[in-house]
Amino acid sequence: MTENGESKNDSATQNSCSKRRKISNNNVTVVLGAQWGDEGKGKVVDMLATEANFVCRCGGGNNAGHTVVAEGQEYDFHLLPSGIINKDCTSVIGNGVVIHLPGLFEEGEKAAKKGLENWRQRLRISDRAHLVFDLHQQLDGLQEKEKGKNSIGTTKKGIGPTYSSKASRSGLRVCDLVGNFETFSEKFKNLVRVSKRTFPDLDVNVEKELERYKDFAKQISPMVTDTIFLIHNAMESTAENTILVEGANATMLDIDFGTYPYVTSSNCSIGGVMTGLGIPACSIGEVYGVTKAYTTRVGDGAFPTELSNELGDTLQQRGREFGVTTKRKRRCGWMDTVLLTYTRMINGFTALAMTKLDILDVFEELKIGVSYQHNGKNLDSFPAHQDILKEVVVEYITMPGWKTCTEGIRSFDELPANAQAYIKKVEELIKCPIKWVGVGKSRESIITRF
Protein backbone atom coordinates (compact mmCIF):
# COMPACT_ATOMS: atom_id res chain seq x y z
CA MET A 1 0.00 0.00 0.00
CA THR A 2 1.13 3.60 -0.58
CA GLU A 3 1.06 6.23 2.21
CA ASN A 4 -2.33 7.56 1.12
CA GLY A 5 -3.89 4.10 1.23
CA GLU A 6 -3.80 3.28 -2.47
CA SER A 7 -2.50 -0.07 -3.64
CA LYS A 8 0.59 -0.10 -5.85
CA ASN A 9 -1.54 -1.48 -8.66
CA ASP A 10 -3.98 1.44 -8.33
CA SER A 11 -1.11 3.90 -8.34
CA ALA A 12 0.45 2.29 -11.39
CA THR A 13 -2.87 2.32 -13.20
CA GLN A 14 -3.38 6.02 -12.44
CA ASN A 15 0.15 6.84 -13.57
CA SER A 16 -0.41 4.89 -16.77
CA CYS A 17 -3.72 6.67 -17.43
CA SER A 18 -2.19 10.05 -16.66
CA LYS A 19 0.71 9.35 -19.01
CA ARG A 20 -1.66 8.17 -21.75
CA ARG A 21 -3.80 11.32 -21.40
CA LYS A 22 -0.73 13.52 -21.56
CA ILE A 23 0.58 11.81 -24.69
CA SER A 24 -2.71 12.08 -26.55
CA ASN A 25 -3.48 15.61 -25.44
CA ASN A 26 -3.39 18.58 -27.81
CA ASN A 27 -1.30 17.07 -30.61
CA VAL A 28 -4.07 17.46 -33.18
CA THR A 29 -4.06 20.64 -35.26
CA VAL A 30 -7.15 21.53 -37.30
CA VAL A 31 -7.51 23.76 -40.38
CA LEU A 32 -11.06 24.87 -41.23
CA GLY A 33 -12.71 27.20 -43.71
CA ALA A 34 -14.03 30.33 -42.01
CA GLN A 35 -16.26 31.56 -44.84
CA TRP A 36 -18.10 29.79 -47.70
CA GLY A 37 -15.16 27.70 -48.89
CA ASP A 38 -12.36 28.27 -51.42
CA GLU A 39 -10.40 30.26 -48.81
CA GLY A 40 -7.04 28.61 -49.51
CA LYS A 41 -7.12 25.82 -46.91
CA GLY A 42 -5.03 23.57 -49.15
CA LYS A 43 -2.14 26.01 -49.16
CA VAL A 44 -2.20 26.35 -45.38
CA VAL A 45 -2.41 22.57 -44.92
CA ASP A 46 0.47 22.08 -47.36
CA MET A 47 2.57 24.52 -45.33
CA LEU A 48 1.77 22.86 -41.98
CA ALA A 49 2.09 19.35 -43.41
CA THR A 50 5.85 19.73 -43.72
CA GLU A 51 6.01 19.14 -39.95
CA ALA A 52 3.12 16.67 -39.59
CA ASN A 53 3.20 12.89 -39.32
CA PHE A 54 -0.43 12.44 -40.41
CA VAL A 55 -2.68 14.65 -42.53
CA CYS A 56 -6.35 13.68 -42.38
CA ARG A 57 -9.61 14.44 -44.18
CA CYS A 58 -12.62 14.12 -41.87
CA GLY A 59 -15.72 14.93 -43.95
CA GLY A 60 -17.24 15.82 -47.29
CA GLY A 61 -16.25 14.18 -50.54
CA ASN A 62 -14.98 15.16 -53.95
CA ASN A 63 -17.19 18.24 -53.83
CA ALA A 64 -14.25 19.88 -52.07
CA GLY A 65 -11.52 21.51 -54.13
CA HIS A 66 -8.13 22.42 -52.69
CA THR A 67 -5.38 23.97 -54.82
CA VAL A 68 -1.75 23.55 -53.80
CA VAL A 69 1.29 24.96 -55.58
CA ALA A 70 4.53 23.19 -54.67
CA GLU A 71 7.88 23.40 -56.44
CA GLY A 72 6.25 25.27 -59.31
CA GLN A 73 3.60 22.57 -59.89
CA GLU A 74 -0.09 23.24 -59.29
CA TYR A 75 -2.23 20.41 -57.92
CA ASP A 76 -6.01 20.29 -57.54
CA PHE A 77 -7.14 17.91 -54.80
CA HIS A 78 -10.76 16.89 -54.29
CA LEU A 79 -10.54 13.71 -52.18
CA LEU A 80 -6.85 13.32 -51.49
CA PRO A 81 -5.65 15.25 -48.43
CA SER A 82 -3.47 18.20 -49.47
CA GLY A 83 -0.71 16.79 -47.25
CA ILE A 84 -0.22 13.94 -49.74
CA ILE A 85 2.51 16.12 -51.27
CA ASN A 86 4.62 15.59 -48.14
CA LYS A 87 6.40 12.30 -48.79
CA ASP A 88 7.29 11.90 -45.11
CA CYS A 89 3.75 11.82 -43.72
CA THR A 90 0.77 9.50 -43.94
CA SER A 91 -2.44 10.81 -45.51
CA VAL A 92 -5.73 9.59 -44.05
CA ILE A 93 -9.27 9.63 -45.44
CA GLY A 94 -11.44 9.27 -42.34
CA ASN A 95 -14.78 7.58 -41.69
CA GLY A 96 -16.72 10.83 -42.14
CA VAL A 97 -15.65 11.22 -45.77
CA VAL A 98 -17.80 9.85 -48.59
CA ILE A 99 -15.61 8.40 -51.35
CA HIS A 100 -16.23 8.22 -55.08
CA LEU A 101 -13.62 5.62 -56.03
CA PRO A 102 -13.52 6.39 -59.78
CA GLY A 103 -12.85 10.02 -58.87
CA LEU A 104 -10.21 9.08 -56.29
CA PHE A 105 -8.15 6.99 -58.70
CA GLU A 106 -8.55 9.52 -61.51
CA GLU A 107 -7.35 12.28 -59.19
CA GLY A 108 -4.41 10.22 -57.98
CA GLU A 109 -3.24 9.32 -61.47
CA LYS A 110 -3.60 12.91 -62.64
CA ALA A 111 -1.42 14.08 -59.74
CA ALA A 112 1.08 11.27 -60.43
CA LYS A 113 1.56 12.58 -63.98
CA LYS A 114 2.49 15.93 -62.45
CA GLY A 115 5.16 14.30 -60.30
CA LEU A 116 3.33 13.03 -57.20
CA GLU A 117 5.06 9.74 -56.40
CA ASN A 118 3.83 6.68 -54.49
CA TRP A 119 0.58 8.31 -53.37
CA ARG A 120 -1.09 4.89 -52.94
CA GLN A 121 1.59 3.74 -50.50
CA ARG A 122 1.13 6.85 -48.35
CA LEU A 123 -2.68 6.87 -48.27
CA ARG A 124 -4.82 5.13 -45.64
CA ILE A 125 -8.61 4.90 -46.02
CA SER A 126 -11.10 4.22 -43.24
CA ASP A 127 -12.98 0.96 -43.54
CA ARG A 128 -16.00 2.84 -42.13
CA ALA A 129 -16.14 5.49 -44.87
CA HIS A 130 -19.20 5.41 -47.13
CA LEU A 131 -19.02 4.97 -50.90
CA VAL A 132 -20.37 7.42 -53.48
CA PHE A 133 -21.64 5.56 -56.54
CA ASP A 134 -22.38 6.97 -59.97
CA LEU A 135 -26.07 6.42 -59.18
CA HIS A 136 -25.71 8.92 -56.30
CA GLN A 137 -24.39 11.47 -58.78
CA GLN A 138 -27.34 10.77 -61.08
CA LEU A 139 -29.69 11.23 -58.13
CA ASP A 140 -28.00 14.52 -57.28
CA GLY A 141 -28.74 15.87 -60.74
CA LEU A 142 -32.29 14.50 -60.81
CA GLN A 143 -33.08 16.01 -57.41
CA GLU A 144 -31.76 19.40 -58.47
CA LYS A 145 -33.81 19.24 -61.69
CA GLU A 146 -36.93 18.33 -59.72
CA LYS A 147 -36.50 21.39 -57.48
CA GLY A 148 -36.53 23.67 -60.51
CA LYS A 149 -36.06 27.33 -59.57
CA ASN A 150 -35.68 26.25 -55.93
CA SER A 151 -32.51 24.24 -56.64
CA ILE A 152 -29.62 24.98 -54.29
CA GLY A 153 -26.77 24.68 -56.81
CA THR A 154 -25.04 21.51 -55.61
CA THR A 155 -21.85 20.26 -57.24
CA LYS A 156 -23.78 17.20 -58.47
CA LYS A 157 -21.01 14.98 -57.12
CA GLY A 158 -23.50 12.75 -55.29
CA ILE A 159 -22.52 13.89 -51.82
CA GLY A 160 -26.00 14.69 -50.51
CA PRO A 161 -27.62 11.47 -51.80
CA THR A 162 -24.75 9.44 -50.31
CA TYR A 163 -25.22 11.00 -46.88
CA SER A 164 -28.96 10.32 -47.31
CA SER A 165 -28.19 6.65 -47.98
CA LYS A 166 -25.96 6.64 -44.91
CA ALA A 167 -28.68 8.13 -42.71
CA SER A 168 -31.32 5.70 -44.04
CA ARG A 169 -28.95 2.74 -43.41
CA SER A 170 -28.99 1.66 -47.05
CA GLY A 171 -25.49 2.93 -47.84
CA LEU A 172 -22.41 0.81 -48.48
CA ARG A 173 -19.08 1.30 -46.77
CA VAL A 174 -15.50 0.55 -47.71
CA CYS A 175 -15.53 -2.47 -45.38
CA ASP A 176 -18.43 -3.89 -47.44
CA LEU A 177 -16.41 -3.57 -50.63
CA VAL A 178 -13.24 -5.24 -49.33
CA GLY A 179 -15.19 -7.90 -47.45
CA ASN A 180 -17.37 -10.61 -48.98
CA PHE A 181 -18.06 -9.45 -52.53
CA GLU A 182 -21.24 -11.52 -52.86
CA THR A 183 -22.67 -9.72 -49.85
CA PHE A 184 -21.52 -6.40 -51.28
CA SER A 185 -23.27 -7.24 -54.56
CA GLU A 186 -26.57 -7.96 -52.80
CA LYS A 187 -26.34 -4.72 -50.83
CA PHE A 188 -25.60 -2.78 -54.00
CA LYS A 189 -28.60 -4.29 -55.78
CA ASN A 190 -30.74 -3.34 -52.80
CA LEU A 191 -29.43 0.24 -52.95
CA VAL A 192 -30.42 0.40 -56.62
CA ARG A 193 -33.90 -0.94 -55.82
CA VAL A 194 -34.40 1.57 -53.00
CA SER A 195 -33.19 4.45 -55.19
CA LYS A 196 -35.45 3.51 -58.10
CA ARG A 197 -38.53 3.66 -55.89
CA THR A 198 -38.12 7.43 -55.81
CA PHE A 199 -36.60 7.91 -59.26
CA PRO A 200 -37.77 5.09 -61.58
CA ASP A 201 -35.85 6.57 -64.52
CA LEU A 202 -32.52 6.06 -62.76
CA ASP A 203 -30.21 4.34 -65.25
CA VAL A 204 -27.89 1.78 -63.64
CA ASN A 205 -26.20 -1.14 -65.35
CA VAL A 206 -25.86 -3.25 -62.22
CA GLU A 207 -23.63 -5.99 -63.61
CA LYS A 208 -21.28 -3.52 -65.25
CA GLU A 209 -21.01 -1.53 -62.03
CA LEU A 210 -20.26 -4.64 -60.01
CA GLU A 211 -17.47 -5.57 -62.42
CA ARG A 212 -15.96 -2.14 -61.97
CA TYR A 213 -16.12 -2.39 -58.21
CA LYS A 214 -14.60 -5.85 -58.15
CA ASP A 215 -11.52 -4.22 -59.69
CA PHE A 216 -11.72 -1.25 -57.31
CA ALA A 217 -11.81 -3.66 -54.37
CA LYS A 218 -8.44 -5.09 -55.43
CA GLN A 219 -6.94 -1.65 -55.91
CA ILE A 220 -8.14 -0.16 -52.66
CA SER A 221 -7.57 -3.10 -50.30
CA PRO A 222 -3.90 -2.31 -49.49
CA MET A 223 -4.92 1.20 -48.40
CA VAL A 224 -7.85 0.22 -46.17
CA THR A 225 -7.46 0.11 -42.40
CA ASP A 226 -9.17 1.03 -39.14
CA THR A 227 -8.06 4.67 -39.15
CA ILE A 228 -9.36 5.23 -35.61
CA PHE A 229 -6.80 2.80 -34.22
CA LEU A 230 -4.15 4.08 -36.63
CA ILE A 231 -4.48 7.66 -35.41
CA HIS A 232 -4.85 6.81 -31.71
CA ASN A 233 -1.87 4.47 -31.78
CA ALA A 234 0.15 7.27 -33.35
CA MET A 235 -0.96 9.77 -30.71
CA GLU A 236 -0.25 7.41 -27.83
CA SER A 237 3.03 5.97 -29.09
CA THR A 238 4.92 9.25 -28.82
CA ALA A 239 4.17 12.86 -28.06
CA GLU A 240 6.21 13.80 -31.12
CA ASN A 241 3.57 12.51 -33.51
CA THR A 242 1.48 15.39 -34.85
CA ILE A 243 -1.91 14.98 -36.51
CA LEU A 244 -3.07 17.63 -38.97
CA VAL A 245 -6.76 17.66 -39.91
CA GLU A 246 -7.84 19.30 -43.15
CA GLY A 247 -11.42 20.47 -43.14
CA ALA A 248 -13.41 20.39 -46.37
CA ASN A 249 -15.89 23.04 -47.53
CA ALA A 250 -16.34 25.64 -44.77
CA THR A 251 -18.33 26.63 -41.70
CA MET A 252 -20.88 28.69 -43.65
CA LEU A 253 -21.62 25.51 -45.64
CA ASP A 254 -22.06 23.38 -42.50
CA ILE A 255 -25.43 21.62 -42.52
CA ASP A 256 -26.24 22.87 -39.00
CA PHE A 257 -24.48 26.24 -38.80
CA GLY A 258 -24.30 27.35 -42.42
CA THR A 259 -26.71 29.33 -44.60
CA TYR A 260 -29.26 26.50 -44.79
CA PRO A 261 -30.53 25.18 -47.20
CA TYR A 262 -27.62 26.45 -49.33
CA VAL A 263 -25.15 24.20 -47.54
CA THR A 264 -23.34 20.91 -47.96
CA SER A 265 -24.55 17.64 -46.40
CA SER A 266 -22.03 17.27 -43.59
CA ASN A 267 -20.65 19.07 -40.53
CA CYS A 268 -17.61 20.88 -41.85
CA SER A 269 -17.04 22.81 -38.63
CA ILE A 270 -15.07 21.63 -35.59
CA GLY A 271 -17.61 18.98 -34.55
CA GLY A 272 -17.07 17.09 -37.80
CA VAL A 273 -13.41 16.57 -36.89
CA MET A 274 -14.37 14.43 -33.90
CA THR A 275 -17.18 12.45 -35.55
CA GLY A 276 -15.34 12.13 -38.86
CA LEU A 277 -12.10 10.73 -37.43
CA GLY A 278 -12.94 9.39 -33.96
CA ILE A 279 -10.71 11.95 -32.26
CA PRO A 280 -11.69 13.11 -28.75
CA ALA A 281 -12.07 16.83 -28.10
CA CYS A 282 -9.26 16.82 -25.52
CA SER A 283 -6.74 15.90 -28.22
CA ILE A 284 -7.39 19.03 -30.28
CA GLY A 285 -4.90 21.82 -29.72
CA GLU A 286 -4.68 24.55 -32.32
CA VAL A 287 -7.71 25.32 -34.50
CA TYR A 288 -6.80 27.53 -37.44
CA GLY A 289 -9.44 29.24 -39.54
CA VAL A 290 -8.74 30.32 -43.11
CA THR A 291 -10.29 33.43 -44.62
CA LYS A 292 -9.70 35.43 -47.74
CA ALA A 293 -8.94 39.14 -47.41
CA TYR A 294 -12.41 39.60 -48.92
CA THR A 295 -15.43 37.27 -49.22
CA THR A 296 -16.56 34.86 -51.94
CA ARG A 297 -19.12 32.12 -52.42
CA VAL A 298 -20.16 29.77 -55.23
CA GLY A 299 -23.80 29.11 -56.05
CA ASP A 300 -27.00 30.52 -54.65
CA GLY A 301 -27.86 31.86 -51.23
CA ALA A 302 -27.76 35.14 -49.32
CA PHE A 303 -24.49 37.08 -49.46
CA PRO A 304 -24.75 40.33 -47.44
CA THR A 305 -21.47 41.99 -48.58
CA GLU A 306 -21.68 40.92 -52.24
CA LEU A 307 -20.51 43.44 -54.84
CA SER A 308 -22.63 43.15 -57.98
CA ASN A 309 -20.67 45.85 -59.79
CA GLU A 310 -17.27 46.65 -61.28
CA LEU A 311 -15.56 46.28 -57.90
CA GLY A 312 -16.89 42.73 -57.62
CA ASP A 313 -15.78 42.03 -61.19
CA THR A 314 -12.28 43.28 -60.34
CA LEU A 315 -12.07 40.96 -57.34
CA GLN A 316 -13.35 38.06 -59.46
CA GLN A 317 -10.86 38.64 -62.27
CA ARG A 318 -7.80 39.46 -60.17
CA GLY A 319 -8.49 36.59 -57.76
CA ARG A 320 -9.21 34.12 -60.57
CA GLU A 321 -12.35 33.29 -58.68
CA PHE A 322 -13.61 30.11 -60.29
CA GLY A 323 -14.69 27.06 -58.32
CA VAL A 324 -12.00 24.35 -58.35
CA THR A 325 -14.70 21.67 -58.48
CA THR A 326 -17.60 23.43 -60.21
CA LYS A 327 -15.63 25.82 -62.50
CA ARG A 328 -18.41 28.33 -61.83
CA LYS A 329 -17.62 31.98 -61.24
CA ARG A 330 -17.45 32.84 -57.57
CA ARG A 331 -19.49 35.75 -56.31
CA CYS A 332 -17.26 38.35 -54.63
CA GLY A 333 -17.71 40.97 -51.92
CA TRP A 334 -16.12 42.92 -49.10
CA MET A 335 -14.73 41.37 -45.93
CA ASP A 336 -17.55 40.45 -43.54
CA THR A 337 -16.49 40.44 -39.88
CA VAL A 338 -20.01 39.62 -38.66
CA LEU A 339 -19.71 36.32 -40.48
CA LEU A 340 -16.14 35.72 -39.28
CA THR A 341 -17.08 36.43 -35.67
CA TYR A 342 -19.87 33.86 -35.98
CA THR A 343 -17.57 31.15 -37.35
CA ARG A 344 -14.90 32.01 -34.77
CA MET A 345 -17.47 31.43 -32.01
CA ILE A 346 -18.48 28.03 -33.40
CA ASN A 347 -14.98 26.69 -34.01
CA GLY A 348 -12.94 28.37 -31.28
CA PHE A 349 -10.25 29.52 -33.71
CA THR A 350 -6.93 30.05 -31.98
CA ALA A 351 -5.67 32.01 -35.00
CA LEU A 352 -6.52 32.77 -38.62
CA ALA A 353 -4.73 32.65 -41.93
CA MET A 354 -5.74 35.49 -44.27
CA THR A 355 -5.12 34.62 -47.92
CA LYS A 356 -5.15 36.67 -51.15
CA LEU A 357 -4.23 40.01 -49.59
CA ASP A 358 -2.44 40.84 -52.85
CA ILE A 359 -5.75 40.82 -54.75
CA LEU A 360 -6.62 44.06 -52.92
CA ASP A 361 -3.46 45.83 -54.09
CA VAL A 362 -5.27 47.93 -56.76
CA PHE A 363 -8.08 49.42 -54.66
CA GLU A 364 -8.17 53.08 -53.60
CA GLU A 365 -10.21 52.19 -50.55
CA LEU A 366 -11.59 49.09 -48.88
CA LYS A 367 -14.72 48.41 -46.90
CA ILE A 368 -15.22 46.03 -43.99
CA GLY A 369 -18.69 44.89 -42.92
CA VAL A 370 -18.96 45.37 -39.16
CA SER A 371 -22.67 44.91 -38.31
CA TYR A 372 -26.04 43.90 -39.73
CA GLN A 373 -29.28 45.84 -39.47
CA HIS A 374 -32.75 44.47 -40.17
CA ASN A 375 -35.88 46.62 -40.16
CA GLY A 376 -33.82 49.45 -38.72
CA LYS A 377 -32.47 47.48 -35.76
CA ASN A 378 -28.98 46.11 -35.16
CA LEU A 379 -28.90 42.32 -35.07
CA ASP A 380 -27.24 40.78 -32.00
CA SER A 381 -26.50 37.48 -33.74
CA PHE A 382 -26.05 35.94 -37.17
CA PRO A 383 -29.55 35.28 -38.60
CA ALA A 384 -30.59 31.67 -39.18
CA HIS A 385 -33.26 32.41 -41.79
CA GLN A 386 -32.26 33.09 -45.39
CA ASP A 387 -35.07 35.60 -45.86
CA ILE A 388 -33.70 37.77 -43.07
CA LEU A 389 -30.10 37.39 -44.25
CA LYS A 390 -31.14 38.54 -47.74
CA GLU A 391 -32.72 41.67 -46.28
CA VAL A 392 -29.98 42.79 -43.89
CA VAL A 393 -28.33 46.15 -44.40
CA VAL A 394 -24.59 45.96 -43.76
CA GLU A 395 -22.86 48.74 -41.85
CA TYR A 396 -19.33 49.29 -43.17
CA ILE A 397 -16.20 51.05 -42.13
CA THR A 398 -13.95 52.38 -44.89
CA MET A 399 -10.18 52.05 -44.88
CA PRO A 400 -7.60 53.41 -47.32
CA GLY A 401 -6.03 51.02 -49.81
CA TRP A 402 -2.28 50.78 -50.41
CA LYS A 403 -2.02 50.81 -54.21
CA THR A 404 1.27 48.87 -54.02
CA CYS A 405 2.16 45.38 -55.21
CA THR A 406 2.59 43.05 -52.22
CA GLU A 407 3.31 39.80 -54.07
CA GLY A 408 7.06 39.78 -53.42
CA ILE A 409 6.86 40.75 -49.75
CA ARG A 410 7.87 38.09 -47.23
CA SER A 411 7.62 39.82 -43.84
CA PHE A 412 4.75 41.63 -42.15
CA ASP A 413 6.83 44.73 -41.36
CA GLU A 414 7.55 45.20 -45.08
CA LEU A 415 3.86 45.35 -45.99
CA PRO A 416 2.50 48.84 -46.74
CA ALA A 417 1.26 50.60 -43.59
CA ASN A 418 -2.33 50.61 -44.86
CA ALA A 419 -2.18 46.86 -45.50
CA GLN A 420 -0.94 46.29 -41.96
CA ALA A 421 -3.72 48.51 -40.63
CA TYR A 422 -6.33 46.55 -42.60
CA ILE A 423 -5.16 43.24 -41.14
CA LYS A 424 -5.02 44.62 -37.60
CA LYS A 425 -8.51 46.09 -37.92
CA VAL A 426 -9.95 42.71 -38.94
CA GLU A 427 -8.17 41.12 -35.95
CA GLU A 428 -9.65 43.74 -33.65
CA LEU A 429 -13.19 43.32 -34.99
CA ILE A 430 -13.32 39.52 -34.79
CA LYS A 431 -11.18 39.21 -31.64
CA CYS A 432 -8.86 36.62 -33.17
CA PRO A 433 -5.19 36.95 -34.17
CA ILE A 434 -4.15 36.61 -37.81
CA LYS A 435 -1.06 34.41 -37.76
CA TRP A 436 -0.43 34.10 -41.51
CA VAL A 437 -0.97 36.42 -44.48
CA GLY A 438 -0.96 35.13 -48.06
CA VAL A 439 0.28 37.38 -50.87
CA GLY A 440 0.49 34.89 -53.74
CA LYS A 441 -0.21 31.33 -54.90
CA SER A 442 2.90 29.45 -53.82
CA ARG A 443 3.86 27.98 -50.45
CA GLU A 444 6.63 30.59 -50.18
CA SER A 445 4.19 33.50 -50.49
CA ILE A 446 2.77 33.06 -46.96
CA ILE A 447 3.96 35.61 -44.42
CA THR A 448 4.27 34.25 -40.86
CA ARG A 449 3.67 36.94 -38.23
CA PHE A 450 4.33 35.03 -35.00
Our count of domains comes out at: 3
Low-confidence stretches: 12-24
Q: If you compute it from the alpha carbons, what radius of gyration comes out, rounded to the nearest whole angstrom?
A: 23 Å
CATH architectural arrangement of the largest domain:
3-Layer(aba) Sandwich
Return the average pLDDT rounded to an integer: 90
Description:
The protein folds into three domains: 26-126 and 224-285, 3-Layer(aba) Sandwich (Adenylosuccinate Synthetase, Chain A, domain 1); 131-220, Adenylosuccinate Synthetase, subunit A, domain 2, CATH 1.10.300; 292-448, Alpha-Beta Complex (Adenylosuccinate Synthetase, Chain A, domain 3), CATH 3.90.170. Helices cover 35% and strands 20% of the residues. It is built from 14 helices and 20 strands. The strands form five sheets. It has a ten-stranded mixed sheet, sandwiched between helices. Strands 14, 16, 17 and 18 form a four-stranded mixed sheet that branches. A hairpin with a 7-residue loop joins strand 19 and strand 20 (446-448). It is globular, with a radius of gyration of 23 Å.
